[in-house]
From TrEMBL:
It comes from Drosophila pseudoobscura pseudoobscura. Residues 527-604 are annotated as: Disordered. PROSITE patterns: TPR. The gene is APC7. Transmembrane segments: none annotated. This is Anaphase-promoting complex subunit 7. Keywords: TPR repeat. GO terms for cellular component: anaphase-promoting complex.
Amino acid sequence: MENALFANVQKLYDHRLYESVIPAASLLNTLLQNDRNVATLEMEYQVMLYLANAHYKERHFRLAYQQLESVLHTRRTMLRYKSACLTAIEIMNNQFTDVELRYRLAVCYKEVGEPGKAISTLLALSAKMRTPRINMLLGRLHHHASAGSKGKADAVMAYKDVLKECPMSLKSIEALLELGVDGIEVNSLVMNAASAPRNIEWLSTWIKALAQMYGCKHLEAAKTFQQLNDSTRLRRNEHLLVEIGRCLYYYGHNIQAEQFLSTAVMAYPYNMEAISLLAVVYELNEQSAIEQEKLFTQVSSDREFSPAHWFVHGQKMYSDAKYQRGLTFVERCLDMDPRHVEGHLLRGNLFISLQRYREAIEAFRNAQGLAPYRFEVYKGLFHCYVAQKRFKEAQTMCVWAIRSFRTSPRSYTMFGRTLFHSTNPAAKRSARKFVEKALKIDSSYTPAVALMAEICQYEGATKAAIKLLEKQVINYPNQNLYTLLGDILRIEKEPIKALDYYYRALSVDSNCVRAINGINSLKMGGSIGAKGEGTATEPGRGDGSNGMATPTPSGTPHQEWQSVNCDEPLEVSSVSGATHGNSEAAAMSEPLWQDADIEMLNNE
């Protein structure tokens, strides 16, 4: 009976009916355990192999690793007794070799949250026995689970071993660049590999673009990827479109990022990476509410809930101001994928919206550990510190942003706005230099233009501010620019022009509160609102980064105006701290803005 049952278990496994293998192999294993007269070590070992691998294939990882541990123990016993049957089994089925069994055991350990055991299992194999798949898993484990420089060095070594045999492993290339390996070194390693295909110049360009992205040069990376899209036969490849869109989104060119990401999703509607990024970009581009709803409907119709699906649901709740519900979804996303960067950023923004700043700081710190090349990390931390009146830490975030994003106007604009609202007169005067630096990088960068207009108005050059804004709205019309210009013209006693710009703002958003308040002020015959609007500067705009149209170098505007999507404005927080006699804000400003000033000079 045992032999007939064994033959049937073997047949089930050969036909990959793993769910049927499990009960049959379990029954046979019990029979062999209870009747040692008919049981042989070879038969028992093969039954254990079938049972363990069937559990692995069915993703029963806890059961699988227990079975695999027993299999490896039995295998060592058979080796000790020099069993000829063992060699025959492994020759007939390469799934049952020591290398493959250890790989599967390591995967099981990884899935049940035991990365240390997974690493030990793989390191038991000699370097010569490690296949590219083993090295890739080992690299991921060291990269994601090991702490300190040793884990990083071990991960780099494992990824390099993968590239020596598989130079087209783009994920290994990306991981090395993320770990800080120089792009030239990675390119050399790929091109000098024995199995590297010839005539793949595009791969060097791809590596260059990734190196720029992880080096915080996001616009340069987008342009490099764009070269591949424009000048090679890779045009409109889904991965290439996603990379271009990702880099533009990282830089803050959200309108142009939406174009590339929506193209990718239109051509490949099940690319969840593109869908996740597009969901964020739609939220930043406020005019995309209809498209955002369509995207959410598409995702909701798919019942395969991955981390990306939960993230999109959380993003939709965030857009609908259902912040507590959004936290529930994003927590599910992070439970499934603790390294989901967009999930950590969304979690931070949700906590900010709930005014739970300490938890928001923790979320942004987690994101910083995973993706220090993201500007949103520093912007989020900056906002949290300002909201808590921790002005020293807030300004430190600005200095770090300038050091990390040397070629981006966003960091200079954020710090310029911070200095402009400082109580330190010298720091306030220095704000102009940082805004000028931002405009030098991108002369049409709208947040910088708007801030420069505020500075001009503060310095008494109101006509220069009006001229600057009028020129900007001609090329890049936007609701917030219209209302800012309307406020300045209202103060300058030009009610007809002011009214025109307020109505332009209402044509974009019929519920624009600032435009409605401006019109009401004009109706009451006053140039300044009755509730103490003493400046044309709209409070509530952090770094000037999220919601105002700004041109990309190619001439496409992007959204970069609103704060980190929270109710409490950044400038209001900064100013309120100062107006309550907070001398710390003034005392701590000077050395930090001077450090940033030196840093800016070093960048030139």
